[in-house]
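Let us practice reading a record.
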Amino acid sequence: MTENVDSIDWSDPSDGRIYDPDDDHAFPDERLNNVLAFVDNDDEIAAYLAAQNVNPVARKKYNDHGTKHISIVRNRALCLYDLLKAADVEFNGAGDQGLDEADEAVIIGLAAILHDIGHVVHRDDHPYYSIPLAADVLDRILPEFYDTADRVRVKGEVLHAILCHHTEEDPLTLEAGVVRVADALDMERGRSRIPYERGGRGINTVSSQAIEAVALEPGDGVPVQVEIEMNNAAGVYQVDNLLKAKLTGSGLEDLVRIVALNTNEPGDRIVERIEL
């Protein structure tokens, strides 16, 4: 069944930390909020978010990369950006292009929403398939908000962030780095529920069952602390091989601290606390 745009709840509280357009933020948010309001009522984007889950979940027995994943990544990317801006971190993507500070959040928001649409073609190498598909969507959306020169520049920055979220190409902007890290923050227990219930027992699926909660908070001595609660040591795979791997090379390595706590394993705990 095709998912209707009305069924997408971008503010689902189960996502953890939520970006609320009505809150006060550490950055100019009016332009972002206008873009998000437009996107939230776009039938083509809603269709992509539903269709992009077929290859990874139904055919590859992988974890969810559809509407729910995008909601989580979008919320966490914007909240991560807000914490960084509150700490006066200077971003370079929009600025290098002569764009406004207000465009930083637009770049992050659109890249977070569109980063996985290449899954409609194939799970393997999906960021490269996402580029032409996202470009078509951006060509339709951006003229609503930008003149020709600025929409070309915003489009390029969004596509850069999409490309770098899951490839060997390192992000060249902090905006792209935020999207890359936020993609890995979708890791709570149950996020691999569908392939797990269908018999998937790979390390990515099993270890994801060990992650109870993820929180983003201001850090002590760093702008952001990511706090991860695990119920057993299997969660180390998620923290080390996925989140740490995406943080490395993101440009945010010195700005984000990861703390993982093993809170519920009986007996002698193999891992009690990991700090990165």
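A brief commentary: The CA atoms of residues 16 and 51 lie 25 Å apart.
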